[in-house]
Specification:
With about 350 residues, this protein is α/β, with parallel strands linked by helices. It is about 30% helix and about 25% strand. It folds into two domains: about 240 residues, Rossmann fold (3-Layer(aba) Sandwich), CATH 3.40.50; about 100 residues, NAD(P)-binding Rossmann-like Domain (Rossmann fold). Strand 10, helix 9 and strand 11 form a beta-alpha-beta unit. Helix 2 packs across helix 3.
């Protein structure tokens, strides 16, 4: 939904912040070493952290107290530690991620409320790929204020909604069910102006690789408290038009002729990737008339789970004689290249259909 007055964009879904808190606390995928974009230490992650620290280097000192909200596995905190920063704290609801940080002797709270109860404030607050996940933005930003001082620096990194069309991978891909807020640089500045009275001291649009080979649009911004900060809204008309362009492009490309070869046949078909993209395609009925035998998923496979009546299977299921010549439709977007490499390494003899760029 695009808000007419301020041109911000969000998913008007039936949920609340407690729903999201429970989801992330129970989720194990962000603790997995191979999950991209979750505070890890892959080559792609390391390049991202170095860029972040380079941005921050002119605004913070190695003695500053730094807190990373939604730190995931703690890759950014560990990169800061390697660059000489020692006063580091994380906030992360996932137990597995907190255990990663404990092994590095970095304190990590499970919630912002836990950190606030300690009564400590920080010279630098980091929100790296977090704000897009937050349902109750007003409360979240108010809590950032409680962790800050009048001299604190706030660093925010989010997907750049104005760049969705420029880095197109699949229809509506960036409208992930976990990404409920979609920011342009203008709308992000407006939000921070309005809720915290912070002014921007750095802003950059660009791109990054959450996993190797998959480039996505990113915003990097740094803010500082300012008593003179303007309170008026300046709607980001250009950014909102870019989002509308992405919606039109997604609508035009939301068809999958590659799948017609298996529609109406008895050939067993496996879907690979149990993410938001697949769920949207299932809801749309894109697989009607296709003999679906199951869904392969690295994180959820082999635990007896199902989706829409289809069993969720582990990757090694392709070794089953029943599936060695099956058709696989790759429904994961972010890890499509990884799946193709895995299938090639296993000398898979069936047909592979790719439905994303």
């Amino acid at each position: 939904m695009l808000v007419k007055k301020c041109k911000s964009c969000f998913d008007d879904l039936q949920a609340n912040q407690d729903d999201f808190d429970r989801f992330y606390a129970a989720s194990n995928k962000y603790a997995a070493p191979e999950t991209g974009g979750s505070g890890g230490w892959s080559n792609a992650d390391t390049n991202r952290w170095n860029h972040v620290i380079d941005i921050l280097s002119s605004h913070i000192h190695t003695t500053d107290r730094i807190i990373d909200i939604g730190c995931g596995k703690g890759g950014l905190l560990m990169a800061l530690q390697a660059r000489g920063f020692q006063n580091l704290v994380g906030i992360e609801p996932s137990l597995g991620c907190r255990q990663n940080l404990a092994a590095q002797n970095i304190l990590c709270h499970s919630t912002m409320e836990d950190a606030i109860r300690q009564g400590e404030t920080f010279d630098c607050v980091l929100c790296c790929q977090v704000l897009e996940h937050v349902f109750a933005l007003d409360a979240f930003l108010a809590d950032i204020g409680k962790l800050s001082t009048p001299e604190s620096i706030l660093y925010i990194e989010v997907p750049d909604a104005a760049g969705y069309a420029d880095f197109f991978h699949a229809p509506f891909y960036y409208f992930d069910r976990e990404h409920i807020n979609h920011f342009t640089l203008g709308s992000l500045d407006n939000l921070v102006y309005q809720r915290l009275a912070y002014r921007p001291i750095y802003g950059e649009r660009g791109s990054a690789y959450p996993v190797a080979g998959k480039k996505t649009p990113v915003l990097w911004a740094v803010y500082q408290p300012s008593a003179q900060c303007a309170k008026m809204l300046a709607p980001d008309e250009k950014g909102s038009r870019a989002i509308e362009t992405y919606v039109r492009l997604s609508t035009a490309r939301d068809c999958y002729p590659q799948m017609e070869a298996v529609r109406g046949t008895l050939l067993p078909v496996l879907l690979w990737g149990c993410g938001a993209h697949l769920r949207r395609l299932l809801a749309k009925g894109c697989f009607t008339g296709i003999n679906l035998a199951g869904i392969i998923d690295r994180d959820r496979g082999g635990r007896g789970e199902s989706l829409c009546g289809l069993p969720i299977l582990p990757p090694q299921s392709i070794l089953d004689p029943l599936f060695q010549k099956a058709t696989i439709i790759i429904t994961t977007v972010l890890y499509a290249d990884h799946v193709q490499s895995f299938l090639a390494a296993q000398a898979f003899k069936g047909t592979v259909i790719l439905i994303s760029d």
